[in-house]
Design a protein that fits this description.
Elements (H helix, E strand, L loop, with lengths): L1 H12 L1 H20 L21 H9 L15 H16 L1 H7 L3 H33 L9 H29 L4 H12 L1 H13 L3 H26 L1 E8 L2 E3 L2 E3 L3 E7 L6 H11 L14 H7 L4 H22 L2 H10 L2 E2 L7 H34 L4 H4 L4 H24 L23
Antiparallel strand pairs: 1-4, 1-5, 2-3
Length: 445
């Protein structure tokens, strides 16, 4: 405990780090305040009709927005339109040669792509805002004030678009002047905001059973901790490929000759396969807004995470997208060329194409167990619900929410530890260092 308080003292004694923490907490507080401001023309006392927004595809949006979606807040769409635009732009930079050229222009190219992403965010937000208006008119028509109803379709999309742009601005300010990636932190805060109510709901459900129910709740917490530990291993897991650099003598000085490692991540695709898989699984359920208890046949299979066939299809899609996305973002040929350009080589492997083939083969071998583990993480909430865990609390046993939450926390702790080590303080851990995560995209944080 003494070590913990000393670490906090060291963190607070660094003026730059203290300023970043204060800015981050202040902007996050502003965001959380905005999620409780209800849209004009909505009666907040009649919002119980939107309870269906907490399940299925809409439940994922509600989780990322910190409950703002089901509360008909001015920030109901949250950061998700910006995330969708960022993912689309990232895929375009991989698939479209002209976009690749812009990306290789350095800082100016990055600014262009960011600006295009903002423009695309406005378009995506407007489209989602009108869809949200239709949803409110269908599911929450009792909450719309009659006198404001003629203007509701016009004002709401404008307010929702402004709200999303405001959240995007908050995320950029946190990234520039705060601590960590602002977009990721906003998503994490929205997810964490649901944890206390979900845990209390699970506690009340188990407390009604008696002492046996309390023991079950303790076991559930222990399993949750074990899942988080396993997820940390997945995020930080790397295969170190040894790399040697040829010696160069310039004058009286020797350069190179060092032995280093090429870290290949077990899960280089991050959370993207789960996001894509969920999007595909949710497509049939978006035909109607009813809960999965009222669905039948194929629609019920795709919408019910407790269904074994649903789990199997979901796992296969996650594994497939993991290999696909890894192939898109990981280029062994480019790495081999970079090593050759810097006089680096892998012991026992010839430079050039043999090096690219070797790196590609290693990546394929470590991607398979990473993909299987990622698929297991994705279907764990379904197993948790089958075991009797309430739906709200079961979502924290795996899936997108837990993966993003653990990844962002590791990334933030890594940045704090870097600031401490730069000023010759001890790190956050007695041994080793926090590796953080690979930010493949702003969303996946």
């Amino acid at each position: 405990m003494k070590k913990f308080f000393q670490t906090l003292k060291n963190i607070w004694s660094i003026e730059e780090l203290k300023s970043k923490i204060i800015v981050t907490l202040s902007l996050v507080l502003v965001y959380r305040f905005g999620t409780h401001i209800v849209l004009p023309g909505i009666d907040p006392n009649k919002l119980s009709s939107l309870s269906g927004a907490k399940t299925g595809a809409l439940g994922l949006i509600d989780a990322f927005s910190g409950g703002a979606f089901s509360q008909a807040s001015i920030l109901a769409l949250g950061i998700m339109p910006y995330i969708s635009a960022s993912i689309f732009m990232q895929l375009m930079t991989i698939l479209v040669p002209q976009m690749q050229k812009v990306q290789k222009e350095g800082e100016s190219g990055r600014k262009k792509i960011n600006q295009w992403t903002r423009y695309l965010t406005v378009v995506v937000t407007f489209a989602q805002a009108y869809a949200y208006v239709s949803y409110l008119r269908q599911m929450g028509k009792d909450a719309i004030i009659d006198s404001f109803s003629p203007y509701f379709w016009l004002t709401t999309p404008i307010i929702l678009t402004a709200g999303t742009l405001f959240v995007m601005w908050l995320g950029e300010k946190i990234t520039d002047k705060g601590l960590g990636n602002g977009t990721s932190l906003i998503i994490m805060v929205g997810i964490l905001a649901r944890l206390p109510n979900a845990a209390m709901g699970e506690w009340r459900a188990k407390a009604t059973i008696g002492s046996g129910g309390i023991l079950i709740f303790v076991i559930e917490i222990a399993i949750l901790i074990a899942v988080i530990l396993g997820l940390i291993i997945l995020i930080q897991g790397v295969r170190k490929v040894p790399v040697n650099y040829a010696k160069q003598i310039v004058g009286n000085k020797q350069f190179g000759g060092a032995r280093q490692f090429l870290p290949l991540k077990v899960n280089s695709s991050g959370v993207m396969p789960i996001i894509f898989a969920q999007a595909i699984m949710f497509l049939p359920t978006l035909i109607s807004y009813t809960s999965f208890e009222n669905k039948e046949g194929i629609s019920k299979v795709f919408s019910d995470p407790r269904n074994y066939l649903h789990m199997l299809i979901y796992a296969v899609i996650v594994i497939g997208f993991t290999f696909l996305y890894t192939a898109l973002i990981f280029n062994p040929k480019q790495i081999a060329e970079d090593l050759k350009r810097n006089n680096g080589f892998i012991p026992g492997v010839k430079p050039g194409q043999p090096t690219a083939d070797f790196i590609g083969a290693v990546m394929d071998k470590i991607t398979l167990p990473g993909a299987v583990f990622l698929a297991l993480v994705g279907i764990l909430p379904g197993f948790a619900q089958r075991a009797g865990v309430t739906q709200a609390f079961a979502s924290f046993f795996g899936g997108t929410s837990l993966l993003i939450m653990v990844g962002v926390i590791l990334d933030t702790l890594q940045q704090i530890e870097t600031q401490l080590l730069m000023r010759q303080y001890d790190g956050l851990m007695k041994s080793g260092r926090i590796q953080g995560r690979q930010s493949v995209t702003t969303a996946a944080i």
